[in-house]
Write a structure and sequence with these properties.
Strand content: 5-15%
Number of helices: 3
Number of domains: 1
Order of helices and strands: HEEHEH
Amino acid sequence: MPKIKTNKTAAKRFKVTATGKILHGHTKLNHLMRKKTPSGQRRLTIEGQVTGGDLKKIKRLMPG
């Protein structure tokens, strides 16, 4: 049985924690920052947890 290759685009966008949870970065943090409040900008820097049906898809892209 051959090894399953990691999808490199998924590996760049998601991070797996030691307990197996998958974290993602938030969008809307690259430009038009003057409109956003400082607290809103800080909130967007915190990584969110992937849930639902997307979790199954991402785990398939990132084995191990």
